[in-house]
Amino acid sequence: MDPNHLSLLLLFPSLRPLFSSLRRERSSLHLEELIREGDSLLKEGRLDPALKFYSKAARIDPGNSAEKRSALIFGMMGRYMEAIASIDRAIDINPFDHMAWMHRGFLFWRLERWKDALASFERAAALSPEDGYARHCIGVTAEEMRRSKERFRRGSPQAKR
User: Whole-prediction pTM value?
Assistant: First the structure.
């Protein structure tokens, strides 16, 4: 805080709410600028710089959408575990965001972690029962789990005996 502002606060403690609200407004504007810049860079396909802006935004306000945007970029880069960690932070903040759960399911799908993908899609469907796509993903994932088990049985040494 500016030393002049601090002096004013010491002399006039009643000004504290005004300075607090000004600081929040500045922080909010800064947050919006970071996200806008990250979005602009993402549209240009500049993933690394966009990720840096989203990371800064997430540090300012973990409850914003920057965490989900970071997860999207990590996923686009093939850095799936980092994407999952990022989406999990977003889910920790808002566990009722069914699209975050869908995104998590897709990330686990890419890793062929069928049980985790299925659990995520089921959670998304429970949060948004009208989402037919979540139910579709559940069916497709369950079928992929069945196929995976079948491939494993055919390729395992016990299956050849």
Answer: 0.75
